[in-house]
Design a protein that fits this description.
Layout lengths: L7 E5 L7 H14 L5 E5 L1 H7 L6 H15 L7 E4 L5 H12 L2 H5 L2 H7 L8 H15 L5 E3 L5 H17 L1 H7 L3 E5 L2 E5 L5 E3 L34 H10 L18 H13 L4 H8 L4 H27 L2 H30 L4
Parallel strand pairs: 1-2, 2-3, 4-7
Antiparallel strand pairs: 5-6
Length: 354
C-alpha cells in the first residue's frame, strides 16, 4: 500500500490587489516550499464568488495573482499553477463533501460569522458552504500538507474531519476497490482513501498590520489605500506610504519587550524584520533608541529594494497576458489529470456508474 505521497497545496483568492501581507505571509513562503516539496498553487476563482458575485474584471484579477506567483519566483514548469475553475473536479468533490460534512460543523466556522456579519440570512449559500469547497481543493489532489495562517487553521481541521468521516463511512468500499492506504490517526488504525492533511508551518509567520492602525490586519478591503503596500506599488508610492504610516512619538526600544502596547511600532519593526529575514531583536539591536525619522527611511530603502524586482516583473508579465494564459492553461491540464484520477476512484468508492 505504501504511504500518501507528500504534496503541498495552497490557493489565493483573486479579489482586490495583493499587498505586502499576502507576499510575506503566503507567496514568499510558497516560493521557499517549492525547493523541497511537490507543490500545487491555485488561483481560487470559485471562492471569489462568495465574497462578491459579479466582478468587473475577474480575468484581470486571476492574471494578476498568477503574475504575482511567477514574479515572486514560483516555477510553473516543475510545479503546477492554475485557476480553480479550470478544473471542474473541485466543484464535483465539493458537492460530495457537502453531503459528508454536518451542519453542526459548518455552524462552528467562525469565519462565516465574521464575513456574513449581522444579517446572516442574506449571506449566500456559497459563503456558508465554502469550507467544503476548500476541503475539496486540497483533497482532490490528496494533498498532505497546506501552509496555513491562524485564520485558516479551523478550516484545515474541518478538512481533516471531512476526510476522516469519508474514510470511515466508506471503509468497506475503499477496501473493496483497493484504493486505500493503512494509516494511524492518533492511536487508531484507519484504512484511508484521503490523507489527514497537516498544516505546514515554515518559521514564524509575519503578521502584517495596517499602516494606519497597528491593531488591524493589512487588508485589500480597507477603504484607505494608505493602509497597505500593494505589490504593484512603485518605489515612490511605497516611500510615501511608509513615511505616512502611523507611529507614536517615542524612540524605538532596545528590546522587544518595549514594543508591547505600541502596535504601530511593533508592526513597522516586524515588517523590517520580515523583509530582511531577521528577527525583531536584530532590528532593535540596530535601531533601538532611534527615532522614526531615522528608521522609516531605512525601511523605505529596504522595502523598495525587496519589492521593486517583484513589482517590475509583475508589470512586465501583466503586459504579456498570452504568456500568463499559457501558464494557466498548461497548469490546468496537468491539475485536471491529477484531479480526474482522484474523482474516478471516488466515484468507484461511492458506487456511481462510470
Amino acid at each position: 500500500m505504501g504511504e500518501f505521497k507528500p504534496l503541498v497545496f495552497s490557493g489565493v483568492q483573486p479579489t482586490g490587489n495583493l499587498h505586502l501581507g499576502n507576499y510575506l505571509g503566503a507567496i514568499r513562503k510558497f516560493v521557499a516550499l517549492q525547493e523541497h516539496h511537490d507543490c500545487i498553487y491555485c488561483v481560487v476563482d470559485l471562492h471569489a464568488l462568495t465574497a462578491q458575485l459579479v466582478h468587473d474584471d475577474m480575468q484581470g484579477q486571476i492574471r494578476s495573482i498568477t503574475a504575482a506567483f511567477l514574479a515572486s519566483g514560483i516555477d510553473p514548469k516543475n510545479h503546477i499553477v492554475f485557476n480553480q475553475s479550470a478544473v471542474p473536479q473541485h466543484a464535483e468533490l465539493a458537492w460530495i463533501f457537502n453531503c459528508v460534512a454536518r451542519i453542526g460543523w459548518m455552524n462552528r466556522m467562525t469565519q462565516f460569522k465574521d464575513k456574513a456579519g449581522k444579517d446572516r440570512e442574506q449571506a449566500s449559500l456559497g459563503l456558508y458552504a465554502y469550507p467544503s469547497l476548500m476541503a475539496a481543493d486540497i483533497l482532490v489532489y490528496r494533498a498532505t500538507h497546506v501552509p496555513v495562517g491562524e485564520d485558516q487553521k479551523q478550516h484545515l481541521e474541518l478538512t481533516r474531519d471531512i476526510a476522516m468521516k469519508f474514510n470511515l463511512d466508506f471503509v468497506d468500499h475503499i477496501r473493496r476497490t483497493g484504493y486505500g492506504i493503512d494509516i494511524t490517526v492518533g492511536e487508531e488504525p484507519v484504512h484511508a482513501y484521503f490523507p489527514m492533511v497537516e498544516p505546514l508551518i515554515e518559521g514564524p509567520a509575519p503578521r502584517v498590520m495596517s499602516l494606519k492602525d497597528g491593531t488591524k490586519k493589512m487588508s485589500k478591503s480597507d477603504p484607505s489605500d494608505l493602509s497597505r503596500i500593494n505589490l504593484m506599488d512603485d518605489a515612490e508610492t511605497i516611500s510615501k506610504k511608509i513615511r505616512k504610516a502611523k507611529t507614536d512619538p517615542d524612540a524605538l526600544p532596545s528590546e522587544t519587550e518595549g514594543l508591547k502596547g505600541r502596535p504601530e511600532a511593533d508592526n513597522l519593526v516586524g515588517i523590517f524584520a520580515a523583509l530582511s529575514d531577521r528577527t525583531k531583536e536584530d532590528v532593535l539591536n540596530e535601531f533601538g533608541g532611534q527615532q522614526f525619522s531615522v528608521f522609516k527611511p531605512a525601511l523605505v530603502e529596504l522595502a523598495v529594494d525587496v519589492l521593486s524586482p517583484v513589482n517590475g516583473e509583475m508589470r512586465r508579465l501583466m503586459g504579456d497576458t498570452a504568456y500568463i494564459d499559457g501558464v494557466l492553461r498548461d497548469g490546468g491540464e496537468r491539475a485536471r489529470a491529477r484531479a480526474e484520477k482522484t474523482m474516478k476512484e471516488v466515484r468507484d468508492i461511492i458506487g456511481f456508474v462510470q
